[in-house]
Amino acid sequence: MTKIYLARHGITPANRENRFAGRTAEGLHPDGVEQIRQVGARLQGESFGGIFCGPLQRTVQSAEILSAMLQVPFAGLDGFNEINIPHWDGLTKDEIRQQYGEEYPAWLAAPHLFRLPGCETIKEVQERAVAAIDTLNAEHPKENLLVVSHLIVLRSLVLFYRNLAIRDFRSIRIDNGSILCLAQTADGQMKIEELGS
Question: Which of 35, 71, 74, 159 is the most exposed place for a label (fewest CB within 10 A)?
Fold first, then answer.
């Protein structure tokens, strides 16, 4: 049975500045590097068949640190990429409000209804992330795996595996450097839980 650990990348300058990093090439803040080292320390006793991450710098940098600590190779997987809302990339939340009117308040109030031309919805993010998990399960039976991704991607996976609706998106809290574990239960269901300290 495959057990998949899911980690959110370490904190970035954008996280500190209340900025929408999106698909920018931003790397980790020094505190984020330390957070990921702590993730590696927590997982040191596990045996992993592979580490997988989204293609952006902050997840690649996190995966590189974990790869070196755990002595496991890593690979990028587009299914774990950040949501695509290109005209928000690099803007602060206040700048988004100023430049795009009601878009950001709508994103906060009703994420399940959020839909803009040329942008992904949370449902679309969820579909590609779940498909990536299914691929890993099929290609790595009976191996532990580690996935490094983004808040929106990880929230969407939690919603899916807990049978929650997209409207519950804001109820899921996942801090930078948090670890979740996705594993099969005795009845064959996939269950996702936060990894305790």
Answer: 71
pTM of the entire predicted model? 0.96
Exposed/middle/buried for 186, CB within 10 Å: 0-12, 13-18, 19+? exposed
Q: How many domains does the chain have?
A: 1
Residue 141 exposed, middle or buried by CB count within 10 Å (0-12, 13-18, 19+): exposed
149: helix, strand or coil: strand
The token pair at 72 is: 């496991």
Residue 61 near residue 27 (C-beta atoms within 8 A): yes
Q: Left (φ > 0), alpha (ψ -120 to 50) or beta: where does 154 sit?
A: alpha
Residue 134 belongs to domain spanning: 3-194
Instruction: Output the six-digit token pair for 162.
Output: 């807990």
Cα 73 from Cα 60, distance rounded (Å): 12
**pLDDT tens for each residue of 43-71:** 998 999 999 999 999 999 999 999 999 99
Q: What CATH code is carried by the domain that includes residue 62?
A: 3.40.50.1240
The answer to whether 133 touches 146, Cβ cutoff 8 Å, is no
What are the two backbone dihedrals, phi and then psi, of residue 149, each rounded to the nearest 5 degrees?
-145, -160
- Alpha-carbon distances of 111 from 28, 105, 107, 115, 123, rounded to whole Å: 27, 10, 5, 9, 10
The alpha helices in the chain, defined as continuous H runs, are: 13-17, 30-42, 57-70, 93-100, 103-109, 122-139, 151-161
